[in-house]
Amino acid sequence: MSKNKKDNDILSLITDIYIFLIIVLFPLMVDSTGFFKILEFKYNCFVYMSITYIFLIIILSIYYFLKGINILKKRKLMLAEWLAVIYLVINIISCLISPFFKSYNLFIGPGRMEGLLVTTLYVLSFLFVS
């Protein structure tokens, strides 16, 4: 097995674990109160799982880069990935220039916690999984 294949296998394994957690375990996760605090509990679960996944992929990518291993091999972004990046940039700009920026915590999101943090995690997870 070549070194590059082994390195990609580690990244694939981490991605497979993340996908399994999000698709299989995440829907089943509830806290001790059942339905009453499900939003906060699921928000925290998603944020911790996604940040851990993204952090691991970034750290491994930096490690491989420092070892001189190119894990991307001339990889070009597909249209959906470009659209996701554009969507994220628009969301960041929208958050920063919003008239509600000082009134509300737009990073977390008022009410349903649908702010910039979750949008960023969605897009980065999508890009790293793809």
Describe what this molecule looks like in 3D:
This protein has about 130 residues and is mainly alpha-helical. It has 4 helices and no strands. It has helices at about 5-25, 40-65, 80-95, 115-130. Helix 1 (about 5-25) runs antiparallel to helix 2 (about 40-65), helix 2 (about 40-65) crosses helix 4 (about 115-130) and helix 3 (about 80-95) packs antiparallel against helix 4. The mean pLDDT is about 85.
Spell out the blueprint of helices and strands:
Elements: H1 3-25, H2 38-66, H3 79-97, H4 116-129
Helix pairs in contact: 1-2, 2-4, 3-4
Which runs of at least 5 residues are low in confidence (pLDDT < 50)?
A: none
Helical amount: 55-70%
Give, in order, the helices and strands. Answer: HHHH
Distance from N terminus to C terminus (CA atoms, Å) equals 23 Å
